[in-house]
Amino acid sequence: MNKHAVIFLLVLLGAFSAGPALSTPAQAQDPAPFLGSWKGSLSVSGAELEIRIVFSLDEAKKIKGTFDSITQGGFGIKLGDIKIEGKTIAFIIDDPGAPGNPTFKGALDDAGAKIAGEFSQSGLTGTFSIDKEK
Questions:
Q1: DSSP string covering 35-95
Q2: Partner of 105 for a Cys bridge, out of 33, 45, 90, 114, CB 3.0 to 4.6 A?
Q3: pLDDT for residue 23 is more than 80
């Protein structure tokens, strides 16, 4: 088989293997690695807050969550717009009393024991790191 035949064969195989994948609807990301209670800290503008985030499933098996700002005495604050892509999770604090659109985006470590990432609110940015509670 010559070089052009091999390239044509690879292109042809690529076209057939990509075809069904492109026509298949996107599957929902698996929330299982994120479910449970997570505790850690949020750091922004020199302040560090102790936080807890709990992810669970609603009746429709869709991920939902709550946020506790332990340092500030705020508990059971609803999370919204939770999106999972592989090992990355993003969400907002969905409470009209929380100004500035508090937004989180973090990545799950390979052991599935820690989520760390970025936090933003009212133009300020910081970091957060939470460990899975046992």
A1: -EEEEEEEEETTEEEEEEEEEEE-TTS-EEEEEEETTTTEEEEEEEEEEEETTEEEEEE--
A2: 90
A3: no
Tally of domains within the chain = 1
The pair of three-digit structure tokens given for residue 10, joined into one six-digit string: 């690879």
Residue 1 lies in a domain: no
pLDDT value at residue 28: 57
The identity of residue 21, as a single letter, is: A
16, part of any domain: no
Q: How far apart are CA 91 and CA 80, in angstroms?
A: 6
Residue in the block written with tokens 């949020």: 42
Which CATH number does the domain housing residue 80 bear?
Answer: 2.40.128.120
- pLDDT one-digit tens code per residue, 67-115: 999 999 999 999 999 999 999 999 999 998 888 999 999 999 999 999 9
End-to-end CA distance of the chain: 59
User: Per the domain annotation, does 104 fall within a domain?
Assistant: yes
CA distance 29 to 90: 12
> Is 4 part of a structural domain of the chain?
no
